[in-house]
Design goal:
two-stranded antiparallel sheet; 7-stranded mixed beta sheet; globular; alpha/beta; Aminopeptidase
Length: 281
């Protein structure tokens, strides 16, 4: 594959839905619900479009769409996770994916890279290899520049502005998980990740857990998802910023095989709106 022959996504990298006036010290974000697949990306992949979408947190930004009406901004990536993963370090890359040598400063040894799920993923979430041919490092640089950086610049600005305005900020990092995720004893519906108590205060985690359990959801903490790069990087309770990753089981609201909303989607969306209302009071 020649340098730069995969065009960038057509849409802006991020979609920000902000209230006219922010009234709550909370930011909601969805880094994995982007669905802007370019024709060239699909052509370069050895997978069909439906399989490429297995890595998506489908419809998550819709589930939390009420945030702006409750005084909190909602940030969502528009680019697909399979194209560039905003919930990784800036440079987590698998050298086996590239035709040229990677710079020495690239992180090639993380567990995420080893699993094939670095900043530029080698596989989709269901395990299939994405690309027909090897990439060039210039392609990774372009994706980081046009996708990863804009997302984190927007998120950082929202967090800083919120903390400046209110004296504190809570980031709810919104995700979905497959129904067959490992470690979910008893069919857990929601996993809350606070990086094992380092990214969010116990009081905030308890507030979210109590609200969800009060609606009938089965909640588990930190297992198997303790929080990715975003939770661990931005969550600094001593500095007035808390971050909590929320993983919602997809089988609650969507058909995981067909990637379509189930009739219960509206009910789950209503519950997430109730959660938003609880947190923004």
């Amino acid at each position: 594959m020649a340098d730069m022959d995969l065009p960038l996504p057509l849409a802006p990298a991020v979609a920000l839905r902000a209230p006219p006036v922010q009234t709550a010290p909370i930011v909601f974000a969805s880094p994995h619900s982007g669905r802007d697949y370019s024709a060239a990306f699909i052509a370069a992949a050895r997978l069909d479009p439906q399989t490429l979408r297995r890595s998506e947190d489908c419809f998550v930004e819709e589930l939390f769409a009420a945030a702006p009406s409750h005084g909190a901004p909602l940030l969502a990536a528009t680019f697909p996770r399979a194209w560039c993963d905003a919930n990784r370090e800036q440079w987590e890359l698998d050298p086996a994916m590239f035709a040229d040598r990677l710079p020495q400063w690239v992180n090639t040894a993380s567990a995420r890279v080893g699993a094939g799920l670095g900043t530029i993923a080698r596989i989709v979430a269901s395990g299939e290899t994405i690309y027909r041919d090897k990439l060039r490092f210039a392609e990774a640089e372009a994706r980081v520049r046009t996708c990863w950086l804009p997302y984190h610049e927007a998120l950082r600005e929202l967090i800083t502005a919120t903390r400046d305005r209110f004296g504190a900020c809570l980031l709810i990092d919104c995700h979905s998980m497959p129904a067959t995720a490992p470690g979910r004893a008893g069919g857990v519906d929601v996993v809350l990740g606070d990086a094992h108590g380092t990214a969010c205060t116990p009081q905030t985690v308890r507030l979210v857990q109590d609200a969800l359990e009060g609606m009938g959801y089965r909640v588990q903490r930190n297992d198997p998802y303790a929080g990715g790069y975003i939770t661990r990087h931005y969550g600094r309770p001593r500095d007035g910023v808390e971050a909590l990753q929320l993983e919602l089981s997809r089988n609650l609201y969507m058909d995981e095989r067909r990637l379509e909303r189930l009739p219960r989607f509206t009910e789950v969306q209503r519950d997430m709106t109730a959660l938003i209302a609880t947190l923004t009071r």
